[in-house]
Amino acid sequence: MKLNSLLLLATCALLVDVSQAGVTYEQMRSASKLIRDVCLPKYPKVTEEVADAIQVGNIPYSKDSNCYINCILEMMQSIKKGKFQLDATIKQMEIMLPDSYKEDYRRGIQLCKDSTVGLKNAPNCDPAHALLSCLKSNIKDFVFP
């Protein structure tokens, strides 16, 4: 729990000065690295190479990779107990993405808002995989921690 609080503070500190003007690509990647560094150690079967592949949209289907994705989406407040959090996702997108990404992400988020409906989170974190796969398919400049 202490690590999550530190991550939130670090992310807020990183974004405070740019919240008025939008974040830069480098600032977005720095915040993403903080999130990734929290989730990656929790899933030792997800290697750096697998995480790098997910980051660019090559999304494997396995319990470990799905639950790694779920961890990141939960930290980003996009998913909670397997349920997509539309309003929180839009709010985070507005904070965490450079302005040039926002219109495409707004459209993709709306197209994917029902992608987790009817899916069970346990045991394989299927909603996270479905949501990220949908976003990847519907967002031209896909980015992920």
From TrEMBL:
One of its GO terms (biological process) is sensory perception of smell. SMART domains: PhBP. Residues 1-21 form the signal peptide. Keywords: Disulfide bond, Secreted, Signal. GO terms for cellular component: extracellular region. It holds the Pfam family PBP_GOBP. The keyword Disulfide bond applies. The keyword Signal applies. It is found in: Secreted. PANTHER family: GENERAL ODORANT-BINDING PROTEIN 19A (PTHR21364:SF2). Belongs to the PBP/GOBP family. This is General odorant-binding protein 19a. It comes from Drosophila kikkawai (Fruit fly). The lineage of its organism: Eukaryota, Metazoa, Ecdysozoa, Arthropoda, Hexapoda.
